[in-house]
Amino acid sequence: MIQSIRGFRDILPGETELWQYIEKEAISVFSDFGFKEIRIPVMEKTELFARSIGEDTDIVEKEMYTFPDRKGDLLTLRPEATASVVRSYIQQKIYAADPAQKFYTIGPMFRRERPQKGRYRQFYQINAEIFGVAEANADALLIFMLMTLLKRLQVTDIEAHVNSLGCPECRPTFRNALIAFLSDRAEALCADCTRRMDKNPLRVLDCKVPGCREAATGAPAITDHLCTECADHFETLKASLEGLDVPFVVDKRLVRGLDYYTRSTFEILTGALGAQNAVAGGGRYDGLIKLLGGPDLPATGFAIGLDRLAELVPTKAESLVRHPDIYIAALGEKSLGLAFQWICTLALSSIRAETDYSGRSLKSQMKRADRLDAAYTLIVGEQEIENGAAVLRNMKTSDQQEISLENLPKTLADIIGA
Ligand code: HAM
Q: Residues with Cβ within 6 A of ligand 1?
């Protein structure tokens, strides 16, 4: 028996109903905020991700599914969507008509992380990105929209964490202060952090290894090193969130695992998922469009982890499962043929009808009707065909009524539809 790949899983009926419900709510909320859907490929040239996410990140260093195709081009299954949305925005010159654009995209991402609860190698994200708006209100709008969706899905036990990562002007000052602080504690750092210390010391603030966490205690805060423009930008973000009644905490250790971020960064954390506590993450990436060869335009966005969100939504998938409206138990060749025609016709009126294709015994058909939790049953045998009528039974109330077989789909649609 061939098994699925480790870290890749099937989302089955009974669960997919909940996923569809979440996706439907997300699309509804996002479109109310003016976001349009963009669909992008699941595979891109490796270079796109290496340049966007950064060579010295965990994702690019050790988590990408990269392989040469038959012509030798290096390709990668997307570990995230932002780089591809930016690539598309530049390649399709979407900015030419109007640089200010709002997109959302939903789909699978691939990272070769160690699988555990809430962490998969194929996982799903709901992304939202705003291009061409530099003001902090775009970041506030994203966080407000994200919290609105979570509220609509009745997700509780969440906290919005925000921080600013500054810009290429002010970050070097902070980096130097951080390197100076960490160099006194260098021997306590894990191998990854030691190696990346010079190029990417901010990683240490995000490292989960206990030694690194301890070494970073009391580290300088980036918010104390922001230039005037970045500090003002961050103040505006906080004031806007307060104005929108969005509760948040300023988290000076929030640095994110991707290198493209500037200024606002945020994460939605939950206490309900154990170690994998980030439900969503995002921030501003003002330099990325230019870095990838496009115009010098600002951008900001976020991604929700759909696998994790599905764990937090209190709605039970069972309550969303659609059961048959009617089960037609058919006995004998003629009835089987009629029942088959009826179920096809009923589907056109959005009545979900089931029948048996093989003419099994009445007892086994009624058992199946019961197992499927059909709202009504109708038994049609030779006698019923001769009489031109059959008995419709409401399974909840046990009420029975005789109905004519002539124009049966219409009669059923009238009764059940009502
Ligand atoms: P990220 O923080 O790497 O950001 O991922 C966003 C969310 O995806 C995480 O908060 C988490 O819920 C989910 N996630 C990540 N890895 C896994 C995994 N292995 N298994 C299950 N869920 C996972 C980004 O990807 C950025 N592109 C977000 C963004 C959009 N920033 C700006 N625009």
A: 80, 82, 111, 113, 119-120, 123, 125, 127, 129, 257-258, 278-283, 301-303, 305, 307-308
